[in-house]
Design a protein that fits this description.
Blueprint (H helix, E strand, L loop, with lengths): L1 E8 L5 H9 L11 E8 L6 E8 L2 H8 L2 H11 L4 H4 L4 E6 L4
Antiparallel strand pairs: 1-3, 1-4, 2-3
Length: about 100
């Protein structure tokens, strides 16, 4: 299994707005071959710190997703979000290979 975390900080007063965006996401990644699970995590102590966690069956499945036209289309829409402060946020991406369960 391969897990990708995209960690980003938003202003605390905008955290609920961003959470709502993810609750209403397109879900196109869910149909991608090798996709296992999607979660949006919120730090309990720092409510503006959010983490997107996506689990894949293999690293290759993840790489096929991030090099796809569908991925590019979704991320281009993010750049056009009307709130320029939110649109300009760049996440820190961490990638993990599951080595034990």
């Amino acid at each position: 299994m391969y897990i990708v975390h995209s960690v980003f900080d938003v202003p605390e007063e905008k955290a609920d707005e961003v959470i709502d965006i993810y609750k209403n996401r397109t879900g196109s990644v869910d149909k991608w071959p090798g996709f296992i699970d999607f979660k949006l995590l919120q730090n309990e102590r720092k409510v503006g710190e959010l983490t997107v966690e996506i689990c894949w069956d293999t690293k290759d499945s993840y790489l096929n997703w991030v090099t796809s036209d569908e991925y590019q289309k979704i991320h281009e829409l993010e750049k056009k979000y009307p709130d320029k402060e939110l649109a300009g946020i760049v996440p820190k991406v961490h990638k993990y290979k599951v080595v034990a369960k």
